TrEMBL record:
The lineage of its organism: Eukaryota, Fungi, Dikarya, Basidiomycota, Agaricomycotina. It comes from Ephemerocybe angulata. Pfam families: DUF6533. Residues 23-58 form the DUF6533 domain. Keywords: Membrane, Transmembrane, Transmembrane helix. This is DUF6533 domain-containing protein. It comes from the Eukaryota. InterPro entries: DUF6533 (IPR045340).
């Protein structure tokens, strides 16, 4: 299916919106990556860094096919596979990888023994696996694609989704939301405890401690995860498509 010049211009604008910020960040930090990260041995830190740096590019590319007006006719099977690859595979690796990085950073700041880190990771993995299992039902329903509707054809979207959610799936995702909230709350408590310990062991101000220990970035990430977890806990009230969820995931 050939695109008209107007459709090409529209798609180009959409792609530029998705890529501009991410591409700018990659270009402005590429020299630092080459000099600092690439010479390092292949260990947990380097692997997590590269995953979280380059997987979002894959996520954006697939999201363009799923969410933008690409003016292409994708089959339901292709739409389903794209959704599974993007939301259920790449998206979760990015999300859970970022949370693991937060735990590693907090452990490093606290200077605790490795067995405490192992305990934190074990608890985190238990909660995370539980959330994935509970959300499995709604994930299966969310990935259900149909033949393109006339409206989506007119608008230029490549996929049409069923949009139906069973009552059992809604109950499961609510429980998963509470589990995510418990996980995010635990991370927030751990973060506050770590910075309190760091503050007591230094002569500087709290602001100095936060700036020195990348506290602003860590606090921001934990706050976003907490906000997203609160939103997912009230999905039954707010619905699956709501403004807070859009803010948390963009």
């Amino acid at each position: 299916m050939s695109l008209t010049p107007e459709e090409i211009a529209e798609l180009t604008d959409d792609i530029s919106i998705w890529f501009t910020q991410d591409l700018y960040h990659h270009l402005t930090t590429l020299a630092e990556e080459v000099s600092t990260i690439l010479p390092q041995k292949w260990r947990t830190g380097k692997i997590l860094f590269l995953l979280l740096r380059y997987l979002p590019i894959c996520y954006i590319i697939l999201a363009i096919f799923l969410e933008c007006r690409i003016h292409m006719d994708l089959t339901p099977k292709v739409c389903r596979e794209l959704y599974i690859a993007n939301a259920l595979a790449i998206g979760r690796v990015i999300l859970f990888g970022a949370e693991v990085v937060i735990l590693l950073c907090l452990h490093a700041l606290l200077g605790a023994r490795r067995r405490y880190l192992a305990l934190c990771i074990l608890i985190y993995m238990g909660l995370t696996i539980t959330v994935i299992i509970l959300a499995g039902r709604v994930d299966s329903e969310a990935s259900r694609a149909l033949l393109r509707s006339e409206l989506d054809q007119e608008l230029g979207y490549g996929c049409t989704w069923s949009g139906d959610r069973s009552s059992d799936a809604i109950k499961m995702v609510v429980i998963a939301g509470y589990m995510s909230l418990a996980k995010a709350t635990s991370m927030a408590i751990l973060m506050l405890s770590v910075f309190l310990v760091r503050y007591r062991n230094t002569t500087g101000t709290l602001l100095h401690v936060l700036r020195r220990d990348s506290g602003v970035q860590i606090v921001s990430l934990v706050a976003l995860r907490l906000f997203a977890a609160v939103n997912s806990s009230f999905v039954e009230l707010l619905g699956f498509y709501n403004i807070p969820d859009t803010i948390a995931t963009e």
